Amino acid sequence: MKLIHTLAVTTALAAVFAAAPAYAQTRIALVVKSLGNGFFEAAARGAEEAAGELGDVEIIYTGPTEPTAEAQIEVVNSLIAQQVDAIAISANDPDALVPALQRAMQRGITVISWDSGVAPEGREMHLNPSSNDLIGNTIIKLSADHLPDGGDVAILSATATATNQNIWIAEAEKVLPDYEGINLVATVYGDDQSDKSYREAQGLISSYPGLKAIIAPTTVGIVAAAQAVTDAGKIGEINVTGLALPSEMAAHIKSGASQSFAIWNPIDLGYSATYIAHALATDAATAEPGATISIGRVGEVTIGEDGQAAMAEPFTYDASNIDEFATIF
């Protein structure tokens, strides 16, 4: 009888432990425009750093191989099926992703956008890496600083539908009158693909013989443009600037193809997006206008009336600091 009683107790305890829920991690999917992009890989490093600090977070780093809305929609649908807790997405299109992300929210998944935004109805809030007006002014100023007598400049963007690119270009156009003699002659699109961006840069060089600067607010486009200027033997005649990763532009700074460029720290961006997604998914914060959310070592953000928040100002890199930062990202 004693053996039977012991077995019964053991069986009962096993049943209790089996029924008890396992320790639940918050699963946050960091969805990028496309895989294989150094900027987004650095953001993933920041996300993992934040996960380590928060202690109960699993990062799912994912995205399509091609930077299209259709490919991102497939990724989102897969994450819905996996029942992740949060999706933090850098969008390839502000509107096309909305229905899929709405389905995610209807299933209780927290959705935020970061870097490149989603229309308000498709997310709870958006994290800008910086304020759009500051970025727009910065990319024009970077070219004007090295053109004391003015000159023709052109913009090489990513896709024609990229939310962030289009906003930054619009802000840049607004401040053009503040920079006497700077004349924007064209805006072209390389679709964030190295080969196409290179060809578009070549087209600008041949179409505008007096071109003095190519501004590329995309990490893929600026490297391709700098290479095109180098191959065309135009170093010293055409300055390439915009937004870039220090590690990818170090050689072009040293060659003189680029005098300077700017970028926020993508590590900090992925880190901050993770903190925000975690706070919203765990109900530690809300995405209401005026709400302030901690982003760990970066500080805090305050959500504006438009459901957006800005992380920090862009930082300029040149020959004086490129070696230091090229080893970081």
TrEMBL record:
Signal peptide extent: 1-24
Keywords assigned by UniProt, alphabetized: Signal
Presence of the UniProt keyword Signal in the record: yes
Domain Periplasmic binding protein positions: 28-282
Transmembrane regions listed in the UniProt entry: none
Record-linked Pfam families: Peripla_BP_4 (PF13407)
UniProt similarity note: Belongs to the bacterial solute-binding protein 2 family.
Identification of the protein by name: Rhamnose ABC transporter substrate-binding protein
Species, as recorded: Devosia nitrariae
Taxonomic lineage from the root: Bacteria, Pseudomonadati, Pseudomonadota, Alphaproteobacteria, Hyphomicrobiales
